[in-house]
Design brief:
The protein has ten helices and nine strands. With 290 residues, the protein is α/β, with parallel strands linked by helices. It has two domains: 67 residues, Helicase, Ruva Protein, domain 3, CATH 1.10.8; 195 residues, Rossmann fold (3-Layer(aba) Sandwich). The protein has a seven-stranded mixed beta sheet, with helices on both faces. A two-stranded antiparallel sheet has the order 1-2. Helix 2 packs antiparallel against helix 3.
């Protein structure tokens, strides 16, 4: 018999999501179920009453959302936004969905900006701009730029900036550094980037929540090793960084050594790598010589 109470429905949803093979294993499925239920009942998650009977239409709506999630639809698309570094950012279908793991990139960027007066930050391959937006919001004195080739994602980044009233970030359409004004050459304190790096042959192995819902160009440059865009980000960094400026790149653990060698080959000083508490993300760090 179909459960009718909030608690029983949440238990069912958690089991369904835990059994799904189409989503990443690192998601907190109980939390996702609670957030979906809260959106259906139009209450805060903290106000959910486990013994409350859910009306039939509410149950149908909730179970439909759970089925979509189990089928791989990214969770933020179900509710229309993602909370990234404490800021609610709107998301839309057909765009790259910000990764919670990218909060490490923001944290590392903020650390490098400590003590710098009126710093300049550039986020390449910014997508809808979560990293640029978070850094700009946390450091109001910073001049932040985000660049991406996708007009629709840049447009959404600008929209999120307006909604959050973040006025020290600018988004430009263009390929990596090509969208930046020449006046920024040699003036940038920190460059951040979550650049596509999945090798072409590994695209089909990605979970459905990525493979079927996000544009290929946001995941891979479709080269054999997937590092063409990474080489662009690294190769162009020294021109834009000031002496002592930082290049911070988010990537997978298996690429760490290769990317660190690429940084050194480009004339940057290798400064190691940082990981988050759950070891889900890694940020390789390099510095332009002073």
């Amino acid at each position: 018999m179909e459960p009718k109470k909030v608690g029983a429905l949440l238990d069912l949803a958690e089991r369904v999501l835990n059994d799904s093979t189409q989503v990443f294993d690192d998601h907190d499925h109980r939390s996702e179920a609670e957030e979906l239920m809260a959106s259906v009942l139009e209450v805060d998650e903290d106000d959910l009453d486990l013994d409350e009977q859910v009306p039939r239409r509410g149950r149908e709506r909730f179970l439909s959302l759970v089925a979509r999630r189990a089928g791989g639809e990214p969770f933020p698309l179900l509710i229309g936004f993602i909370n990234f570094f404490g800021y609610d950012l709107r998301v839309k279908p057909g765009m790259f969905v910000p990764r919670p793991s990218s909060e490490l990139l923001v944290e590392r960027g903020l650390k490098k900006l400590t003590g710098r007066k009126n710093p300049v930050v550039v986020d390449v391959a910014t997508g809808t701009g979560p990293i640029a937006l978070a850094i700009a919001a946390e450091v109001p004195s910073a001049e932040v730029w985000g660049t991406d080739i996708a007009k629709d994602m840049v447009k959404l980044g600008r929209s999120n900036a307006r909604e959050l009233e973040i006025d020290n970030v600018r988004f430009k359409v263009g390929d990596m550094y090509g969208a930046l004004p020449p006046a920024l050459e040699g003036r940038v304190d920190v460059i951040t980037g979550h650049v596509p790096y999945v090798p072409r042959e590994e695209l089909e192995d990605l979970p459905a929540e990525v493979r079927e819902y996000e544009p290929v160009y946001t995941l891979s440059d479709e080269t054999d090793d997937g590092l063409f865009l990474m080489r662009m980000a690294i190769g162009g960094a020294a021109r834009w960084l000031k002496p002592g400026g930082w290049l911070l790149l988010e990537l997978s653990h298996d690429l760490e050594k290769k990317v660190r060698r690429m940084n050194m080959k480009a004339g940057l000083e290798d400064q190691g790598a940082a990981t988050d508490e759950d070891d889900l993300s890694i940020v390789v760090e390099a510095r332009k010589p002073k």
